Amino acid sequence: MRRIRANAILILTVAWILGTFYYLWQDSKPSSSSSSSSSSSSSGSQLKNHGQKGRLEERTLPLIVTHAPKLEQQSQLLGQFDEKAFLSSKQLKTGEDPYREHAFNLQESDRLGSERAIRDTRHYRCASVTFDPDLPPTSIIITFHNEARSTLLRTIKSVLMRSPPHLIQEIILVDDFSSNPEDCRLLSQIPKVRCLRNERREGLIRSRVRGASAASASILTFLDSHCEVNTDWLQPMIQRVKEDHTRVVSPIIDVISLDNFAYLAASADLRGGFDWSLHFKWEQIPIEQKMARNDPTQPIRTPVIAGGIFVMDKGWFNHLGQYDTHMDIWGGENFELSFRVWMCGGSLEILPCSRVGHVFRKRHPYDFPEGNALTYIKNTRRAAEVWMDEYKQYYYAARPSAQGKAFGRIPEQEVAYSLLKQGGLCLESHGTDSLGLAECKTTPNIPASQKWTLIEPQIRQQDLCLAITAFTAGSKVRLEPCNIKESRQKWKPRGPALQHMISGLCLDSQPPSGPPLVAQCRPQVASQSWEPQLVT
Ligand code: LR7
Ligand code: MN
């Protein structure tokens, strides 16, 4: 009798273990034999592809699955919204290429349903992190242009299913002039979901600004229209922003396969980066920082964010001037926002205890009215022109095709000009090779040839810089294109004199006839005394 009972228990245990494994395997296996070959044929792929290779986590994941809510909860979540009718009215026809319209496998997305369970991909220690009980609510902003209904609905439902309800003030959908206005209208039947529809195609940047302006919560959360948020994704981000409103935080962005929609954990050792052509890429956290990380739940500082999925304070977003609304369609706004944050004293971080899945694609499924390459150049050129000062030359060196391309108007930068006075005379340029002293002109008749900008260590006239021609006393000075690394262009004030940094020589007007050169510094000598006088 004892023997039979023991056997029965053993059989049950084995069956239970096998069942669990089968369930998990079902969750992650590729469930169709479709190939991805049709998904990667586009002019835009080289701009678009952020290179997902190497981003996926290698460690084995904890076998925890985030379950869908029970049926009663679901109907409460969706209110009057008729999910079945919404999804079934637009389905793939037999024989149609499932990648054509969205650059991901639509057939798989449609097959999945709107509330599948996904793995909790966080480090196990994240589960025991605690948050303030009084976190403020957020407005979720999702802009979309011709998104697939199944991915858009899954994004919305994952937010409603996996966020504490009191933290979701509203979900604002900004329909960027999609072909079918019904997508947005029908979704607004879901409780908390609002729909704003653009009257013409604006692109994601102006659409997000519109969404942010309409938001009623003090914290903004941006999401792409093909995401799935994971367990407790929101609390860590709101917590960090609540503690310091100048933080801009993003989750680790997990990968949803564009072929079979498997949800795959991304590496937790990466941060945002870019090259001089302003192309976004993921980079390894520097090794010293990685070694010093003994708490895997701590934030990771990042120079830039990927752009689509982040949380920030609404007041801070407005204080920074929101986005550059002259950027079109897609691209560049993530650098521009990141630069604003840094330069205005804020910070950017990735929170490893927050995970959001995103369908990474290899091409843009939508059109760019002015072409994809020109649009990317316009947007990144604006970011470079407005924020990168003399470093913009590296951008142009890395992307020579950007030179001369249209980028619209940018706000006139506030530059302080000075005259460089010596007695009643002023330092003046005549072309690049020749400099001299001439009678000082007065406002409003000051010519560009007498206006200098003194931004240490450079003495500039527009994009030209004052440079010595050799490192020896008696060498002539001239103007040449500014280059921040060029030591011949580096000066510093020394009393009333202007001293070349490396040679230690001083700018001397060589009276009575010039031309100016560099000479041994002699305190108080009139020919080495330059008095900057600000002009407007
Ligand atoms: O004209 C448009 N109007 C829109 O509303 C074009 C796009 N969109 C919407 C679109 O439906 C989607 O919801 O804007 C969102 C982003 O467009 P995607 O998904 O085609 O772009 P992406 O995922 O390649 O874009 C990444 O870089 C963009 C640069 O402008 C944006 O910052 C995206 O938000 C950003 N996505 C992410 O950061 C997710 C992680 C990807 C990475 C790295
Ligand atoms: Mn996207």
TrEMBL record:
<dbReference type="GO" id="GO:0000139">
    <property type="term" value="C:Golgi membrane"/>
</dbReference>
<dbReference type="GO" id="GO:0046872">
    <property type="term" value="F:metal ion binding"/>
</dbReference>
<keyword id="KW-0333">Golgi apparatus</keyword>
<dbReference type="GO" id="GO:0006493">
    <property type="term" value="P:protein O-linked glycosylation"/>
</dbReference>
<dbReference type="InterPro" id="IPR000772">
    <property type="entry name" value="Ricin_B_lectin"/>
</dbReference>
<feature type="region of interest" description="Disordered">
    <location>
        <begin position="33"/>
        <end position="54"/>
    </location>
</feature>
<dbReference type="Pfam" id="PF00652">
    <property type="entry name" value="Ricin_B_lectin"/>
</dbReference>
<keyword id="KW-0735">Signal-anchor</keyword>
<comment type="similarity">
    <text>Belongs to the glycosyltransferase 2 family. GalNAc-T subfamily.</text>
</comment>
<keyword id="KW-1015">Disulfide bond</keyword>
<dbReference type="GO" id="GO:0030246">
    <property type="term" value="F:carbohydrate binding"/>
</dbReference>
<keyword id="KW-0812">Transmembrane</keyword>
<keyword id="KW-1133">Transmembrane helix</keyword>
<dbReference type="InterPro" id="IPR001173">
    <property type="entry name" value="Glyco_trans_2-like"/>
</dbReference>
<protein>
    <recommendedName>
        <fullName>Polypeptide N-acetylgalactosaminyltransferase</fullName>
        <ecNumber>2.4.1.-</ecNumber>
    </recommendedName>
</protein>
<dbReference type="Pfam" id="PF00535">
    <property type="entry name" value="Glycos_transf_2"/>
</dbReference>
<keyword id="KW-0479">Metal-binding</keyword>
<dbReference type="InterPro" id="IPR029044">
    <property type="entry name" value="Nucleotide-diphossugar_trans"/>
</dbReference>
<feature type="transmembrane region" description="Helical">
    <location>
        <begin position="6"/>
        <end position="25"/>
    </location>
</feature>
<feature type="domain" description="Ricin B lectin">
    <location>
        <begin position="413"/>
        <end position="533"/>
    </location>
</feature>
<keyword id="KW-0430">Lectin</keyword>
<keyword id="KW-0808">Transferase</keyword>
<dbReference type="GO" id="GO:0004653">
    <property type="term" value="F:polypeptide N-acetylgalactosaminyltransferase activity"/>
</dbReference>
<dbReference type="InterPro" id="IPR035992">
    <property type="entry name" value="Ricin_B-like_lectins"/>
</dbReference>
<keyword id="KW-0328">Glycosyltransferase</keyword>
<keyword id="KW-0464">Manganese</keyword>
<keyword id="KW-0472">Membrane</keyword>
<dbReference type="InterPro" id="IPR045885">
    <property type="entry name" value="GalNAc-T"/>
</dbReference>
<comment type="pathway">
    <text>Protein modification; protein glycosylation.</text>
</comment>
<feature type="compositionally biased region" description="Low complexity">
    <location>
        <begin position="33"/>
        <end position="45"/>
    </location>
</feature>
